[in-house]
Amino acid sequence: MKTIKQAILGFGLLACLVSCQQNADHAQNDARHTDSLRIVSLNGTVSEILSDLGLEKQVVGTDVASTYPESMKNKPKVGHNKKIPIEGVLALQPNLIIGTQQEVTEETKEQFKNAGIRMLLFDQEFSVEGTKNLIRNVSDSLKHTAKGDSILAKFNSDMDKLNAIQVESKKPKVLFIYARGAGTIMVGGKGTQVDKVIALAGGENVAKDFPDYRPLTAEALVAYNPDVLLFFNSGLSSLGNEEGLLGIQGVKETNAGKNKKIIAMDGQLLSGFSARLPLAIQELHSKIY
């Protein structure tokens, strides 16, 4: 009987040692896989996730929207995700290109496919669940599931803390304006990223009569009569900040203009729907209320 017990214990110990060795081998293989990566990221939110996963050193280039963390600004830029010059990307000698399905054109996809470069393109839905799905899909695809679990745990914890946000029954009417100088002033309609985050922060996007973006006219601005005018930091700056904005026709006739309720936020934080989404919601809520 003693011999049988010893044999069983020995077998169990051997199985454990084999399992532990297999896990160690997997970890070693994953590390080798990570070390060999040369990534070009074509999406600011994907770049954030790569950094959170500890893969920033493997990123050799990004699109112009990859501005967080601050160190990402120092990476070589390959243009805007919808206007990517393939020659500039190939010059960085990547072996993996990562982006989102919605932003990379079919022509660009075909060019990279013909060049023999592996691509990972993910769906990005601008919602809380969409953010979690993107984090999960990127981390799983790059064999960093455990780290992805850690990011998601913090994200869920931060979202839970937002339950204490007080939302008034009469929500502030918010108008998001995308500006690149006085010559390019657009307003964000329904279905845009900013439309979604305004709702999450307890505001009401007044530009619900059209999808996507359209040029803003003085007449439409007065008709919308927003309580709050919302900008990216760069957009407000391009108009000469608050003083320059108040000089634009129609602004002073709105409640926002009369009360100087003009707010601005970092563009990637506000519209990226990254792991920092809880921070974006909290900051926007505090500004509009």
From TrEMBL:
<dbReference type="InterPro" id="IPR002491">
    <property type="entry name" value="ABC_transptr_periplasmic_BD"/>
</dbReference>
<feature type="domain" description="Fe/B12 periplasmic-binding">
    <location>
        <begin position="38"/>
        <end position="289"/>
    </location>
</feature>
<dbReference type="Pfam" id="PF01497">
    <property type="entry name" value="Peripla_BP_2"/>
</dbReference>
<feature type="signal peptide">
    <location>
        <begin position="1"/>
        <end position="24"/>
    </location>
</feature>
<keyword id="KW-0732">Signal</keyword>
<dbReference type="InterPro" id="IPR050902">
    <property type="entry name" value="ABC_Transporter_SBP"/>
</dbReference>
<protein>
    <submittedName>
        <fullName>Iron complex transport system substrate-binding protein</fullName>
    </submittedName>
</protein>
